[in-house]
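[Meeting: bench + compute handoff]

Bench side (C.D.) handed over the final construct sequence. Compute side (W.E.) agreed to return the predicted structure before the next meeting so the bench team could plan truncations. Sequence as handed over:
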Amino acid sequence: MSAQLVDVARIAPQPWKNGAGLTRELAVHPSGATPDDFDWRLSLAEVRHDAPFSAFPGIDRCIVLLRGAGMVLRSPSGIIERRLATPGDPFHFAGDDSVSARLIDGPSVDLNVMVRRGRYRTEVRTIVAETEFASAAAGLLLVLAGQWRGGGEAAVGEPMQALLWRHSMPAGRVVPLAAKSRALLVRLERTA
């Protein structure tokens, strides 16, 4: 199945589930699912001030800092205490946990990958060189810098553009087409 080109700048921002921030939904499965009944969801969040994260019971989350100085994530129980200050470094945690974000030095933008526990799992990694990947139920190649070509698809050449395999990501490889290219590769696999 061929990939869809997604331009993040063309997606209108929406309020977070708890109203404390803005998100741009890249894709959700099944199509049209709400924040309470999706199997997986890919989105970009703009965090402009210290705020609590929305709770997502039964969801496993992965957050990746894309822009800005980052944030510190904390749960009242102390189970989660994580400084996200390195762009491209994925952090996995349970959406059931109550988590608050404290910005380190101004606004930040991050990628959120959320999967329904027991139905899907995710692999998220930053790539800077030619990379082979196995097939998956769905996937995303999000350009952070430079230009990329993925799985025989058209080139993606602007930061914050992506190739999205919504229903089937065939095995393949992604190739940087420019020096100092960087991207996030997300694979979503069924577990049940």
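W.E. noted at the follow-up: The chain has a mean pLDDT of 90. C.D. will use this when planning the next construct.
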